[in-house]
Amino acid sequence: xxxxxxxxxxxxxxxxxxxxxxxxxxxxxxxxxxxxxxxxxxxxxxxxxxxxxxxxxxxxxxxxxxxxxxxxxxxxxxxxxxxxxxxxxxxxxxxxxxxxxxxxxxxxxxxxxxxxxxxxxxxxxx
Length: 126
Description:
This protein is α/β, with parallel strands linked by helices. The chain is built from 4 helices and 5 strands, in the order H-E-H-H-E-E-E-H-E. It has helices spanning about 30-40, 45-55, 60-75, 105-110; strands at about 45, 80-85, 90-95, 100-105, 120-125.
């Protein structure tokens, strides 16, 4: 028995004129970087840390929180998991992975403590 093959004739490719062709972005790397830097990461405060801050009278300004946030991002990019953040009046244990303050101590109390299970330290003078 003889086999029969049917071949389709090629169809011309016609561009679809209803779709808009997207052009590559003309913004520079510097402007994209500026946009990214403007969004300071939000840092969460655990319930435990919030209670400790209230008990110990620890108050941190918005400007200092922004510095902490940017340093935590930097630490995370370098592979830091949990970090000790030392401020002028306080010390915080912060999870860079979760961007969460785990606990807070005032500087006098932190002076006599041994901190374990951290793999980074951030010093902020303001």
